[in-house]
Design a protein that fits this description.
Helix 1 crosses helix 2. By secondary structure, this protein is α/β, with parallel strands linked by helices. Helix 5 links the parallel strand 3 and strand 4. It is globular, with a radius of gyration of 21 Å. The termini are far apart.
C-alpha cells in the first residue's frame, strides 16, 4: 500500500512502546512534510542517544558524563539516597523541589515471572555505596504495585543489618479522591500510612 521507505519507517515506529499502526502512520506522514534540514536534525538527535549518553557510575542514571550532575552537585545531601526503579522515575521527584539528596537507579523491580531477580538489578552496587559512604537514610521510591512491593520487602531485609533509617514514599488517597470509589489497596494504604494531626 505504501512505498517501501514509508513502510519501513512505520514498522520502526510501531516497535516503540504504546505506539500502534495509526500513530506510526501519523508520525511518518508528519515527517514527510518536514524539510530535509529538520529531518537531519531529528536523525542526529536519535543517533546522539547512543554516542552522547552514558550511565553514571555512582547512581546508574543516564547522563552526558559520569558522575552525573546530581552526584557531582556539592549542594546535594549525599547522606540520603532515594532508590528508584528506572532513570525516568527521577524527574517527577526532582520537579517537586522537595528532595535534595542523591539517587540510586535499581534498573527495574523484582519480577520473578519475567526472570528479573535481585541479581539482575543494581542491588550489590547499592550495598557497595552503603559500605563506602556515611548514609543516614534510604528512601524506597517504587510504584505501589506487586513488583514495587516485592522489591521494597526484599530491600528492607537486605538493608536491615546496616542499621540505616529506611523509609518509603507515603501512600493513600490522592487529593480530590472519593472514598466511595477508592479501591481496597488504596484505602488500606491510606489507613496504614495515616498522619497525625
Amino acid at each position: 500500500m505504501f512505498p517501501t521507505p514509508i513502510k519501513n519507517l512505520i514498522d520502526h515506529f510501531t516497535r516503540l512502546p504504546g505506539i500502534g499502526m495509526k500513530t506510526s502512520e501519523k508520525f511518518v506522514f508528519y515527517l514527510l512534510k518536514r524539510s530535509p534540514a529538520e529531518l537531519e536534525q531529528f536523525a542526529r538527535a536519535i543517533l546522539s542517544l547512543k554516542s552522547n549518553i552514558t550511565i553514571c557510575n555512582e547512581c546508574y542514571n543516564f547522563s552526558e558524563k559520569s558522575p552525573c550532575g546530581i552526584c557531582n552537585d556539592q549542594n546535594r545531601n549525599k547522606e540520603i539516597i532515594c532508590v528508584v526503579a528506572k532513570p525516568q522515575d527521577i524527574h517527577p521527584i526532582e520537579t517537586t523541589g522537595k528532595f535534595s539528596g542523591v539517587y540510586h537507579v535499581l534498573g527495574g523491580v523484582i519480577d520473578n515471572l519475567n526472570g528479573i531477580t535481585p541479581d539482575k538489578l543494581n542491588v550489590n552496587q547499592l550495598i557497595d555505596r552503603l559500605q563506602k559512604n556515611n548514609i543516614q537514610e534510604i528512601i524506597l521510591a517504587f510504584n505501589p504495585d506487586i513488583g514495587g512491593e516485592e522489591t521494597t520487602m526484599y530491600l528492607r531485609k537486605i538493608l536491615e543489618p546496616f542499621n540505616i533509617k529506611t523509609t518509603r514514599l507515603g501512600r493513600g488517597l490522592p487529593m480530590g479522591a472519593d472514598l466511595e470509589y477508592a479501591d481496597e489497596v488504596t484505602l488500606s494504604n491510606a489507613l496504614e500510612y495515616r498522619n497525625e494531626l
